[in-house]
Amino acid sequence: MTTPLPEKRASTPTVALKEIMLRVPWRGTGASVRIHDELLADREEEQVSLLVNPLAGNGKVKALYESWGYVQVSEQQPSPDGPVLAAMVRAVRPPAESGT
User: Fold this and answer.
1) pLDDT digit string (tens) for 72-100?
2) What angle do CA 33, 96, 42 make, to 5 degrees?
3) pTM (two decimals)
4) Rounded CA gap, 60 and 8, in Å?
């Protein structure tokens, strides 16, 4: 991590999400969030983390994760010649929105 994680984030049981990729015909159909939610449905950890290149898709990929409730908590550069990635987290089961 290029910046330290907040203590609460570092000590909370966490599952790491590696990648969700869809073929072009499936993009924009809601399939990725359904796959994401199904992968997390029975997890016991309190939060889920992922790394994303903030430049991917001109920022659209990071914005998609933000729309799913992820927040950036740090940055990470896995290799000296690689991109700086946004480290993002959210609750495995975010609180239900009021009125739903």
Assistant:
1) 999 999 889 999 999 999 999 876 654 44
2) 55
3) 0.84
4) 28
